[in-house]
Fold this protein.
Amino acid sequence: MAAKIIDGKATAQRIRAEIATATERLAAEFGVQPTLAAILVGDDPASAIYVRRKGEHTQEVGMRSLSFKLPSEISETELLDLIDRLNGDAGVHGILVQLPLPAHIDRGRVLSGIDPNKDVDGFHIVNAGKLAVGAPAIVPCTPLGCMLLLSEQLGNLEGLHAVVVGCSTIVGRPMAELLLQARCTVSIAHIHTRDLPDIVAQADILVVAAGAPGLVRGSWIKQGAVVIDVGINRILCPETGKARIVGDVRFNEAAPVASAITPVPGGVGPMTIACLLKNTLAAAELACRDRLGSSGTRAA
Ligand code: NAD
């Protein structure tokens, strides 16, 4: 039987509609408009597209979007100064620094400069640590989106064997933490893993975030597994000579074996931005609660 195609676009649209309603409510109750500040350093075209798209989606749900475009030769100190100013601005609820950064800037120092309560990408070491010990944290957007798709698909994940291919701090590791919190048995594979096909074959849930086009073959996948393909790879199509986007899983081989599978594009990608908005809303709600806690009254 052919797999169900998991429509991340539709789910993301539904989540954005819910966020729009909650954003309106926050404005009515607290007079607060959730605000996301995006910082782009340099002129990488792909990064510029991502930042623009995030800004458009932010405004579509009724939030305020601030965008800071900085030249690639900006110093780390100047970047940290901007982050400091945004940290101290009560009107800014979420801050994201678009990655990658130019080589002369230390990514770890920059990400650690963001106030953990405004770290809507969930990359701050405090949020990573909280996630690792199972404490409430801002969770990185892509794994959060994958979890929402999995829960929608499977409901309770308890006891299922989840295999995560890729262990980056942005996708693979937080994904594995979330699956563990959902009481899965979790295996993590990476570039040095031996016998990848044998490990993949054990998966009831397979999440692939390797950045390796077509890495996972259909013959590796257990019958009935749910497959989440995070990979976004631009390849040149030999037939047309045009570039196209493919995932890390060979979709045509995997679809007849899996019970459900995300397409690329249209699977995980749209969920990532929806979850960024979700995190921004949560950060704004937290700021309102803190304000309410400290003043005891609501804003007019
Ligand atoms: P990364 O390069 O930081 O990490 C890749 C991981 O995959 C590493 O842990 C590496 O060990 C592992 N890996 C690489 N090749 C492998 C192989 N042949 N066998 C087994 N493991 C292998 O990448 P990342 O930032 O985690 O992103 C992974 C992919 O997900 C990329 O294609 C990226 O574009 C995509 N991505 C998509 C979204 C989205 O919104 N859909 C968001 C973030 C990343």
Summary: The chain has two domains: 31-115, 141-269. The mean pLDDT is 96. The first strand starts at residue 4 and ends at 5. Residues 36 and 65 are 5 Å apart (CA to CA).
